[in-house]
Amino acid sequence: MKTLSVTHYIRYGYNRRFFLTAASAFAASTLFASCGHTDSQSNGEQLPKTVRIAWLKGNIGFFVLKTKGELDKRFNDLGVSIEWSEFPTIPVQLEAFNAGSLDFGPGVDASLVFAQASDVPFVYVTAEPPRPQSLAFVVHKDSPIQSVKDFKGKKVGYATGWNLHYLLVKALEANGLSPSDIESVKITAAADGMAAFESRGLDVLAIWDPFYALMEKTMQIRTVINGEGYTANRAYTIATPTFAQEYPNAIKIILEELEKVSRWADQHPKDVAELLAPQLNIDKDVLEAASRRRPYGVIPVDQKITDEQQNVADTFFKLGLIKKQIQVSELVAQNPVWLPDNIAKS
What we know:
By secondary structure, the protein is α/β, with parallel strands linked by helices. It is about 40% helix and about 15% strand. The protein has two domains: about 5-130 and about 235-330, 3-Layer(aba) Sandwich (D-Maltodextrin-Binding Protein, domain 2); about 135-225, Periplasmic binding protein-like II (D-Maltodextrin-Binding Protein, domain 2, 3-Layer(aba) Sandwich). Helix 6 (about 165-175) links the parallel strand 6 and strand 7. Helix 3 (about 70-75) runs antiparallel to helix 10 (about 250-265) and helix 5 crosses helix 13. The longest helix is centred in the C-terminal third of the chain and has 20 residues, at about 250-265.
């Protein structure tokens, strides 16, 4: 797969083309079954010959998982190879899920809601701990805006259908406002939003890490709110329904190694920054700051997390951004085989 430059990465717009293509329906009852086939490769559990995994430079867990190479070694010892495919964004990655060319990868709350609404074939496997401090609405340091109530009548830049859109709606509601009370300005990439904000074309900008940390270092800004009290801003791991059904032991191996690198990332934010800096072309101190304000980990998708994601889905449905009501619980695939014994709880 062609590797895209960091400039392309931060400027890539929110690609919703794949959401217009419906995947074939699949039976929900198959999502929860454990494979009964046997194979001598790993304790009697069947393993595939190849596992196709997505990764993004901006997704720390999967980036470290690929870079350290321990998962490749473990699978190679079992006669399994990994095909790693790089993507610039989660929505673009989900196009590959829709095309049937991936087995496993990362996901994020808002994008997965749109994917489910258009029948993209995936199931939720695990979640990450909440990271509400990794996204925020910021203003210029000399701005008169002091609270969300002051957003009324102001130019607010955010990306439609992203996690920050959800945060905005919830924050406005909590302060007696609605999206119609602000002047919405569509932002399709972090770089474009930052440029518009710096030129004073925006009063308020929705921004996420590591670009949030970059703005804190390079611009005179003030944070009005982050996600605390409004959104968990979770990331997920996802798999195709077929892969989840047929290869639970392969998923267990992936999750065990992902949990190891997550613990390492939690304990070594400086090392994470040094690993990412040459890939993202962002200063190490910026990346370290972004890493320190978010936890890493592998968490089962329990009822609490399912309810959080359902709230995201319901909000976007009410806004008319997705055209049908969806039930997140229908795609939460649970299998005791694949959950490592020592993973955290939500």
